[in-house]
Write a structure and sequence with these properties.
208 residues, alpha/beta, TIM Barrel, 17% strand
Amino acid sequence: MDIIKEVCVDNIRDAINAVKLGADRIEFCSKLDEDGLTPRIEDLISIKKIVKCPIRVMVRPHSRSFVYSEQDLKEMKKTINLCNQHNFDGVVFGCLDENMELDIKKIKYLTDLSKPLKVIIHKAIDLTSSTLNSLKQLIEIKQINGVLSSGGADNAEHGLDNLKKMIAISPPEFEVISAGKITNENLDYLHEKIQGKFYHGKKIVGKL
């Protein structure tokens, strides 16, 4: 099965275990109980020294919403600069406007700051009125490398038809990372249905 398994963790011990269990990539955040926030600076510096697989960093200053103020953007910029300094594989963020649609202006601003890091837009896309239309907007921004999505549903299984459509309309090098309650127990079944290349979850390589 030629796929990339990305494990989301909120501490370094879990990251080390995930790699031992076969993770191809880590998404590193803090506070997974709040769906993942920006990690602490010292944890970012430590994990880069300890964990040798590609690491993508969650850039999300709070869990209140995905509508960000100027102050929030300043904090996000700080994190992105640090990730650039330490040569992480990529950053993961998403911005919505007051109508729960993608805030393309803010996304472009953060994307420009992020280069040459890979840029992944996270599950904020699932809250928009149409994941497919939102995806089309993101594909037009050439520096964006992918999206993390449950296909607009509460988990990957419920969103699999949409995930298949998202993969179908994406350019070959664009990553549609299927996420949402994907574990080592249902991965084979979901992969058979979705036929994607990228899968993401906390227990995707088993219990850490």
